[in-house]
Amino acid sequence: MRKLDREWLDTLEMIYRKAPISRTLKSDISFDDEGRAHFSLQFHPGVCHALGDIHGGIIGAMVDNATWFTAAAMYPNVWITTTEFHTYLIKTPARQNIYSEGWVIHRGKRLAVTRAEVRREDGELVAYGTATFVVLSHIRFTVEEVEKALKSLDPL
C-alpha cells in the first residue's frame, strides 16, 4: 500500500472548497485515512427538481466528485481527466442530506478507475457509479495555478 500525501489531500480539499460549485451545491469534502474522498451535500431548494427533491444531475455530480477526488488523491500534483462516468440512480433522496464516498478499483500508470456510492442521511443507498480517468503525468500543476484559475472566475 502506498503512503498517503496528506499535504496533497489538504490541497485537493482547498481546491474543491474554493471552486464555485462547492458553494452552489452547499457541499463539502474530506478524505479518510485511506485517501477516499467523502462529500456531503445539505438539502436545499437550489438542488431540487420541480417536485421538490434533489435533481438526478446533482446526484451525478456527487458521484463525479467522489470518484474524481478519490482518483486525484493517488497522483500528487498530476492532472487527471475524466474519460467517462456512469451513475445508477436507485432510490429517491427523500429531501434528506446526501453523502458520497469514493473507492479505488484500479490505479495504473496511465489509467485510474474508481467507484462511488451516494447515501441519504438515514443510510439508504441513493445511487452508485463508476468512473475512468486518464493520468496526464506530463501536466503537473501547482496550488498557485489553481488559485489563479479560480480567481479569474470570481466576479469580485
Topology:
Elements lengths: L5 H13 L1 H6 L1 E5 L5 E5 L14 H17 L5 E12 L8 E10 L3 E10 L4 E16 L2 H11 L3
Antiparallel strand pairs: 1-2, 2-4, 3-6, 4-5, 5-6
Placed side by side, the strands forming the largest sheet appear as 1-2-4-5-6-3
Strand content is 35-45%
CATH topology: Thiol Ester Dehydrase, Chain A
- Can you tell me the CATH class? Alpha Beta
Shape: globular
Helix content: 25-40%
Oligomer: single chain
Structural class: alpha+beta
Can you tell me about this structure?
This protein has a six-stranded antiparallel beta sheet with strand order 1-2-4-5-6-3. The model has no long low-confidence stretch (mean pLDDT 93). The protein has 156 residues and is of the alpha+beta class. The chain is globular. The chain has a single domain, classed as Hotdog Thioesterase (Thiol Ester Dehydrase, Chain A, Roll), CATH 3.10.129. The chain is built from four helices and six strands; from the N terminus they run ααββαββββα. The protein is 30% helix and 37% strand. The longest helix has 17 residues, at 56-72. The protein starts with 5 loop residues before the first helix and ends with a helix. β4 and β5 (111-120) form a beta hairpin.
